[in-house]
């Protein structure tokens, strides 16, 4: 039976070479004149979407199976990220499915494939190409059509719940098996399948499962765009019987919000002409409609969300004596060390989103005055009541990151580098502040913790536990490995190779950690490092506030502060 359409996910691009996502693109697939592989019935086609990654074809998603149909229109919508500066190769493979066995991979099940790029589909908007079997052989007259649509930035989605009453009975020995299809009518009068419900067996008053579709898919974000809704009686051989149809708009559907309901007569035009007393072929009722706005990173920033930046610096003995030129902490008046380079590169970006331009700066792994006991979460300005660093008064205007640089340089002669490399205490410290912010239930502050370290952490179990806890808070963690140590074990903290879990097996709610070895950017510009480590932050901010269902606050009035740029 036709399955509800879903949304596909594409693996993230390599974190070491982040790309700017221009937009997300929805792909709709249909086929014509497919080969008939079945003896008694027609083929039961399913489409697999594959994307090429590092020379290998990886399955991204697959469509529903449509029974006994050589000209299928799939309800499944594939969603891919579109990168202008990258050639993104796609491959669509059509297979004949075999019931519970699912989609086969044998040659006998293969109905044809087609390769293209995301760019080609986006540029042409509608691509129709022949399907090929292996060795470049045409799959008869089979063709596949891909229609692309960009998801607009202000897109949201709508949740709909339909039922029907007293539908016509199309079956002789049982009742109809109805399902509902919704089509969007485009400007050129063509129809795009938006959604296909599940089949409700043997029922003339079915209640279909609620479903979600993007407003872009449903009506191109135009409330008055006409929609055609069709009710069918399902047939396992693919010859579905038409029960009736009705036309509506999203504007009309919205009357069903709250306690209200909207209903339409399900009409069969042929019966209307032939039958004098014909009223309808049943009634379709919209039981509920919920609109969910999807907010962007900019929505939150422009609504007044502040990015609070904290830097944590590794002062363990493995860095070397700061007085020695070979030390990673050596202060060269002519050339900043790797700690300073990473700190300034990331901090200069973050300071634009922090109104007071004061950054918290912490240290770990050193003996500190006055008792010279080891601390793993001390303020480098040695003020336990206020760890925010301010630049000296001579700085006009005082750059936020400059205060941290000055505190770092002033701190080095006063401490004794020691160990071990424990970072869980600092993660937990920032998490406590983020937890206080969470209780406000507003999108007002998001916390970024930049950890600069020269080696693999020694409290890995506690660190994993702290990260899992932090994943539930408005917080992201960036770890930059400084020096030439082997950071292989640090990759486990970055969820790119799998879901990070606590020692007890609890997974992170969100992937909030980004790890990068600084040596990979030694010869690159500072902006390259900043782009890499901050690339995931906008997505992480939106994921957190979406999970919490916190909308952006009311937008602030345009600023006239010259240090913040011209009014937006």
TrEMBL record:
GO terms for cellular component: cytoplasm; nucleus; plasma membrane. Residues 3-131, 138-265 form the C2 domain. Its main location: membrane. The keyword Metal-binding applies. CDD domains: C2A_Copine, C2B_Copine, vWA_copine_like. GO terms for molecular function: calcium-dependent phospholipid binding; metal ion binding. The keyword Metal-binding applies. Keywords: Calcium, Cell membrane, Cytoplasm, Membrane, Metal-binding, Nucleus, Repeat. SUPFAM superfamilies: C2 domain (Calcium/lipid-binding domain, CaLB), vWA-like. It is found in: Cell membrane; Cytoplasm; Nucleus. GO terms for biological process: cellular response to calcium ion. It comes from the Eukaryota. Calcium-dependent phospholipid-binding protein that may play a role in calcium-mediated intracellular processes. Belongs to the copine family. This is Copine-7. It comes from Hypocryptadius cinnamomeus.
